UniProtKB/TrEMBL annotation:
GO terms for molecular function: metal ion binding; phosphatase activity. Gene3D superfamilies: HAD superfamily/HAD-like. It comes from Conger conger (Conger eel). GO terms for cellular component: cytoplasm. Its cofactor is Mg(2+). Pfam families: Hydrolase_6, Hydrolase_like. This is Haloacid dehalogenase-like hydrolase domain-containing protein 2. The keyword DNA-binding does not apply. It comes from the Eukaryota.
Amino acid sequence: MFRTHNTQKNHWRPNEIEAGVQETNIRSAAVGVMAMRQALKAVLIDLSGTLHIEDTVVSGAPEALSRLRESQLAVKFVTNTTKESKRSLLDRLQRLNFSIQEQEIFTSLTAARSLVEQRSLRPLLLLEDSALEDFTGIETSNPNAVVVGLAPNHFNYQTLNKAFRVVLDGAPLIAVHKARYYKRKDGLALGPGPFVTGLEYATDTHATVVGKPEKTFFLQALRDLNCKPEEAIMIGDDARDDVGGAQNAGLRGILVKTGKYRAGDENKISPLPLATCADFPQAVDYILEQLI
């Protein structure tokens, strides 16, 4: 079961959609959603927690992705994953039987590198070794900036203190993203957000955030899809960063109850998600049945 937001009455109501339901029940979905059927051109999809959790596939996700592609909607995968390079991430997804091409993936690491290049910075990179490939060719000697991603093996006092001193001397602090936590196979785990916040507090500065939920991230992801924000929808497991960020950028958003989702997350953002679905396959069903 998933829930849709009725734009006329401005409150939530349950709306069950199952195979074989009568046309009258289908038409009972939110009026605002029905009015926007013809506008949808693209779907942005989160990866970790939405399609997979580490090396475990969300049940039915590869097949659901195939169904979505058959609709002729443009598809792009947008992720805050910073523990591995885009190439390593692609290899993982293809091993998990997802039909995805490298050019379809837009990562917060890509956005961070773009910012570093635009500003001609020499960053101190607080990243896992497996993610450094995405910064190949970037000068890092005598750093005049700090870039922080998810780096469990480097979040120790010595490394963080080095970053603290660089920022304290006036260097910009760049957060690849500021997620509070994410889902691993052994449970929830701290994201880079708490460590970025600690550096902000210690240096009395504010980080520039480049990944989700920043508006510029979503607009960059849509740039080569030839569609406007109002013609796109985002599917993700993070109410704030995926759905809230997308909706603040002018897209619509669907929240899935896998990955890092916790009960009640849909009520933590405003506007509320367009729909809250059990998982990615149900989100795809919702799009195919109600939005196109």
